[in-house]
Amino acid sequence: MLTELKVLSEAEGSCVSIERRDGKSALLIICEHASRTLPERYGDLGLSKDARESHIAWDPGALAVARGISAALDATLVSQRFSRLIYDCNRPPEAPGAMPEKSEIYPIPGNQNLGADERKARTEALYIPFHDAVRGLIAERKARGQETVVVTIHSFTPVFNGKPRAVELGILHDADSRLADKMLTAAADAPLYKTERNEPYGPQDGVTHTLILHGVSNGFRNVMIEVRNDLIKDDAGQGVMADYLSGLLQQCLEGSH
Length: 257
Hints:
Distance between the termini: 51 Å
Number of strands: 11
CATH topology: Aminopeptidase
Strand content: 15-25%
CATH architecture: 3-Layer(aba) Sandwich
Structural class: alpha/beta
Mean pLDDT: 95
CATH class: Alpha Beta
Order of helices and strands: EEHHEEEHEEEEHEHEH
Number of helices: 6
Helix content: 25-40%
Number of domains: 1
Low-confidence stretches: none
Largest sheet: 7 strands, mixed
Shape: globular
């Protein structure tokens, strides 16, 4: 039974990638939806190639933008190496969206009617190690007296359920809006993108789980950045966005807490 429920093989390694572990920036960048890779055990989940490569499986461009910011500011980056279709690390285990049976227009055959053992196995293989890794990094930073500011990077589709989205850049927050407020003010002063607060999602949609877990609960400044994915579909767009966000974050970090 234990073998049947092994989510990742030894060859697949850890579900967590950490880059610039000793980065000097206060920023701790988190990318929960970095990859569309499905663990071998799950095959294609009954989905077409188009569906497996679409936004339902990952946040296209988000990891590239996160890496650009990490490189520019010497910031530690933590990313999930497997698709959110198996486990969405920005959702707690009890949330329906943690292991979705349907995403947008796509039913996900391999996620239908999951039993308690399978849900537990996925949680223990993907969610717990991912967030434990973030906690471990925070503890290391605290031990060496390094400030932590939590920033999560995501992307969203230009059209959702048939409706175009005008917003290009979303600055999201939960109860603590300190960093988001500064970023929105700075973005208004340099309006390269149409930028909105808590769009196209907000706390009411359950998207601030990671912020609450590692930012709000620790009293750290924090923000979730959502980028419309047509703007970051190639190297050029990713580079421009990473440069813009790096400048915005640096400017806001240099201000008062």
